[in-house]
Amino acid sequence: MAAAERVIVIGAGIGGLAAAAALRMRGARVTVLERAPSLEPVGAAISLSPNALRALDVIGLGDDIRALSAWQGDGGLRAPSGRWLARTEAAAAAERFGGPLVLLHRATLVDHLAGRLPSDAVRTGTPARLTDPGVPGDPRRPARVETPDGELEADLVVAADGLRSAVRGTLFPGHPGTVHSGFTTWRVVVPLPGVAFPSHETWGRGAIWGTHPLRDGRVYAYAAAVAPAGEKAPDDERAELLRRYGDWHSPIPEVLAAVRTEDVLRHDVHHIAEPLPAFHRGRVVLVGDAAHAMPPTLGQGGNQAVEDAITLAFPRPGMPSSADEPVADTLPGYTAVRLPRTTAVTRRAVRAARLNVLTTGRVGTAVRNSALAALSKAAPSLLLRGFDGVADWRPPGGPSGADGDDSGAPRMLAADHGRRGPEENTP
Description:
The chain has helices at residues 14-26, 50-58, 62-68, 90-97, 106-114, 166-171, 237-245, 252-258, 289-292, 301-313, 331-356, 362-378, 382-385; strands spanning 6-10, 29-33, 45-48, 75-78, 84-88, 102-105, 122-123, 129-132, 143-147, 150-154, 156-159, 179-191, 199-203, 207-213, 218-226, 265-271, 280-281, 284-286. It is α/β, with parallel strands linked by helices. The strands form four sheets. Strands 5-4-13-14-15-12-16 form a seven-stranded mixed beta sheet. The two termini are 39 Å apart. Residues 400-424 have low confidence and may be disordered.
């Protein structure tokens, strides 16, 4: 890619910043347009599995993020009574997938990604609208993006504008967009000194809860429950959490006791049920939730966005950090690789949601939990086996890349929580 190639990234979430960092490494002049007034993230935490960490290795961030993690994979699934249904160990996960599953605050990842860009590359408080997708190979038809400061031209536009992507609607106006996944989510980050516990996710009737420690001593907790779209608590969301989860096992009551009303974030979950016909049109490409919004029940939404970013910038094995081929000319290949993988992961996330969140009957819940406990006892690696084909993906190109595995596989333990703001699916 020529060093002068102009790239505009719409959206400064994890996918957008990862794409910007990777494309700049490849030699592009990158401008990131973010409508929010700052990069201060709305959300809480994110789990990164080995597939995303290997993608971050390509831009030199993998080891930094691994070192900052609080959670290294020990934990498992529990019933509301506290009974363990299945256990996982960090060492076993690392051995199986060649690296750990790690949890860190979303702000930490955003800061590290933004740190790979020049200070003037990110323009906050700048909403953007695609006015022309352009034509690859035609210098007279660059892509055009309108901002409050005027129109910008680009050789490539990366749309990372989230669940309700306006760019997606412009590129594919006949696509139905997202659908409600059938449940809502809550997230909190609170200090909880003196309370020790292993990371866990707890499955009840039509509801789940997860509690995980962060490196700075705080606790990240999330919940999800069956609810119609748009429903809110009659009083406040902390009170709603107490009603739903207050009698569940420790440390859930202790977490709720430490929560203030203003600490609780609640958002409905939506996903793209009908896959897009492509992830690109003209000189424009979609990444992250804009391309393949999925329920968070596989813990893969943010991880897949990072995979998108690295695959876009370095689509072939052994590709050097700078190349002459314009990225816009490689977009059909990007769609060919990413669309099948993310479609498979999305479908499995929907099926996982039916198993953990959307199982509402008393009998069905009891059968599910008993089966999980029995299977886990008979096959201790049950949860880890469910992550085969996802966590072992490797980036196709870049300075340290290798041929990737683009298969999808289910994960039972959800952990991708706390991505960017109300536009994205974030327990």
